[in-house]
Amino acid sequence: PANVGACARVVRNTGAAGLDLVAPGDFRTVECWRTAWGAHEVLEEARVFEDLAEALRGVSLAVAFTGRRRSEGPSPDDVRDAAAMVASLAPDAAAALVFGPETNGLTNDEMALCGRAATIPSDPAQPSYNLSHAVAIAAYEVRRAAPRPGDAPRALATHDQKEALLALLEEGLVAVSALPRERTASYFADWRALVHRIDLTPKELTLLEHLSRKLRQAAR
Fold it and tell me: Which of 125, 156, 131 minimizes the C-alpha distance to 59?
């Protein structure tokens, strides 16, 4: 609860759009309200979701913050590079900075759901930040980031649009036997991680949807 309150204060300090909480339990405690000094309305307006997928609906760019190094796949971006990506989005696009519990962070599945990952530099002797401190650093970097002169804002496919594409793609790959009909989800996990990791423009999304439908038709 103390971290939730402190994060609410960070939201107010940095001008972030709001605070979303995934399965937070009973966080409305005296300690939570005490650490949210000057930002109690952020707590009142905080949205609560049952799972991360629900919280990411409508989000064009989700960045999972982690202190772990991946054994496979691309390394996490530096927090400043992630902030620059957020700053380059179109004004009406939504971005989410995603943090896990302080005890063990985000799961691998949650990281894959976000697609993008970022890390905050730290001293190897004490690599783990307090949760609210990590939120403060990331939100501050986003606030100070600005698009470079001449850069056009990017319109990107949202999380739920990618999920709809993945449903079509899975059907198409199964139809042409590129995926097995048994244990399909486990074999499709790498495809899911790939789609969520890449930045898709609306035109690119349409192309991949068209491809997925054609795979299904070709099998027929």
Answer: 156
The amino acid present at 42, given as its one-letter code, is V
Torsional class of 61: left (φ above 0), alpha (ψ -120 to 50), beta (otherwise): beta
How far is residue 74's CA from residue 53's CA, in Å, rounded to a whole number?
22
β-strand 20-22 against 61-65: which pairing, if any? unpaired
Instruction: Please name the helix (run of DSSP H) or strand (run of DSSP E) that holds residue 165, with its range, or none.
Output: helix 159-175
- In tens digits, what is the pLDDT along the chain, a chain of 220 residues? 999 999 999 999 999 999 999 999 999 999 999 999 999 999 999 999 999 999 999 999 999 999 876 655 568 999 999 999 999 898 889 999 999 998 889 998 999 899 899 999 999 898 889 999 999 999 999 999 966 666 667 788 888 899 999 999 999 999 999 999 998 988 999 899 899 888 888 899 999 999 999 998 888 8
Q: Round to the nearest angstrom and report the end-to-end CA distance of the chain.
A: 55
Per the DSSP assignment, residues forming a β-bridge with 61 are: 95
Of 170, 185, 51, 67, which is closest to residue 128 (Cα–Cα)?
A: 67
